Automatic annotation (TrEMBL):
This is Trehalose operon repressor. Keywords: DNA-binding, Repressor, Transcription, Transcription regulation. PROSITE patterns: HTH_GNTR. NCBIfam families: trehalos_R_Bsub (TIGR02404). InterPro entries: Bact_HTH_transcr_reg, Chorismate_lyase_/UTRA_dom_sf, TreR, Tscrpt_reg_HTH_GntR, UTRA, WH-like_DNA-bd_sf, WH_DNA-bd_sf. It comes from Bacillus salacetis. Pfam families: GntR, UTRA. One of its GO terms (biological process) is negative regulation of DNA-templated transcription. The gene is treR. Residues 4-72 form the HTH gntR-type domain.
Length: 239
């Protein structure tokens, strides 16, 4: 195993232990010397693994105290990226499943037509899906696609990955999205399709998704249970 592979292996193993609770939040990791002895490697390799753990938000290095384990029980969803749930699944940890509750063609009401920038006589695909992660339904995705851009859609596609189908099979050039994040009171639909665990508000991420030619073709409301998610981005101050 090369040095690069070695530190990545150590990083992944410690990250897995933090995620499964073997290293609980607010406790310190073993010292660099102890980890170097355990993994039969140099302190330099251990430091590289710990630096990556720090950059990824698993630990906080504190001078004189070591590496403090941070609470990673909340799942991270990038704000600025345009990424499908299937593409995120590998980083979520634990089993995840998509459940399609509502699917079909509709005529949009006035509010939805305004969100999509279309006429009320245009046909729109409506897809309502819950995301079950580690046995709890904690995201409700409500997707609306203009049929003129997406002529065919099936429930089976919605259970797998709509974006995978649109990009790989339909060759649709999905380009960018405008996002809006708000906190709203739970609706009856939220109560029906989510395991709310007593919460009466949800975080709602509204996505207005455009093609390369700037045409708006999708409006989405992604409704998240409050306690399970943090939305992350990377920002650098310009000087």
């Amino acid at each position: 195993m090369t040095k690069n592979n070695k530190y990545m292996h150590i990083y992944q193993e410690i990250a897995d232990k933090i995620q499964d609770g073997s290293y609980p939040p607010n406790e310190t990791l073993p010292s660099e010397n102890e980890l170097a002895e355990f993994y039969e490697t140099s302190r330099e390799t251990i430091r590289k693994a710990l630096t990556l753990l720090s950059q990824k938000g698993f630990i906080q290095k504190i001078r004189g105290k070591g590496s403090l384990v941070l609470d990673v029980s909340k799942l991270s969803f990038p704000i600025s990226g345009l990424i499908s749930f299937k593409e995120l699944q590998g980083s979520l940890g634990g089993e995840s499943q998509t459940i399609v509750y509502d699917f079909g063609l509709i005529k949009p009401d006035k509010t939805l037509a305004a969100q999509l920038g279309c006429n009320q006589d245009e046909e729109v695909w409506k897809v309502v899906r819950a995301r079950n992660i580690k046995g709890e339904r904690i995201i409700l995705d409500k997707d609306y696609f203009l049929k003129k851009n997406v002529p065919l859609l099936t429930k089976e596609i919605c259970e797998r990955s709509i974006y995978e189908y649109l990009e790989n099979e339909m060759k649709l050039p999905i380009s960018y999205a405008k996002k809006e994040i708000v906190v709203e009171k739970c609706t009856e639909e939220d109560r029906l399709y989510l395991d709310l665990d007593g919460f009466d508000h949800v975080v709602v991420v509204k996505n207005y998704v455009h093609l390369e030619d700037t045409a708006l073709f999708q409006y989405t409301e992604s409704r998240h249970r409050l306690d399970k998610f943090r939305f992350v981005d990377f920002a650098r101050r310009k000087h």
